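Re: the 334-residue chain
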Amino acid sequence: MTENMVCAGAVNAVKEVWEERIKKHSEDVKREKEFQHKLVKIWEERVSFTRLKEKVTREEGRVILKIEKEEWKTLPSSLLKLNQLQEWQLHRTGLLKIPEFIGRFQHLIVLDLSRNTISEIPRGIGLLTRLQELILSYNKIKTVPKELSNCASLEKLELAVNRDICDLPPELSKLLKLTHLDLSMNHFSTIPLAVLNMPALEWLDLGSNRLEHLPDAIERMQNLHTLWLQRNEIACLPETISNMKNLETLVLSNNKLQNIPVYMEEMKNLRFVNFRDNPLKLEVTFPPREGTDGEEEQELFGLQFMHTYIQESQRTGDQVNCLPTLPTTIGSNG
């Protein structure tokens, strides 16, 4: 009995030794793999950083990172070594996301990441207080963070052709220097309150969305000189649009307008309008001018067409005004 116990104890002791050795060997192998992985990652980072440095140029005194048609699905953290960059231009790189460390590039003036596959804008974007231009058109962005309102120097924002953006946070009305905004080819069904309340806005493109009407509060945009609203579903224009005294260009082609309201005659600063491809009730023609192609003149001369149409509609009594939009459309801001 005692001998059997001694043998069993010896076997267990040997077993424990071997298990300990196997465990230690497994841990050593794991550590070695982790070490090798780190070495590979460090090497890849160095290679990536070397490639990135080759893409840095100087133009007009600015330090610019410029990459075109070269695959960069992610940007390495080693990019932080180039934190003096003032401009990023990365086009058609397949970039999947804006790096979380973007906020550490405090010298950025222009961030142009158009024509990639970016799906979201990180909140850290709001740390870029010197940023003047943010161009994210032709991506897959669905929402815009309210933190973008902290980019106090922002003058130009382009979010065209993201397809699914349908609203903007009201905080963006704090962008006091924003003059240029492109929201074309998205999913907006009305003009966001944030846009109506942007005090410095001069140029706005909301073409190819799902706008069905324009709010009465559109008159708030007193500095606006160019408004693109082509390819929507707008059926009539609010009377308040005539209060937009600085508006010079108004594009309303490919909508559902059946009439041109008489109050548009009050918009004395208008230089260019386009009502092409709307189901207007009246057919208006005017004789061609000498030395010009009549059809081309009629097609391009939108202002003359507008004035003639209004005169004809007054003559025939075929004027219908829009009903005012409900206060809920305007909101409580401003």
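Residues 327-334 have pLDDT under 50 and may be disordered.
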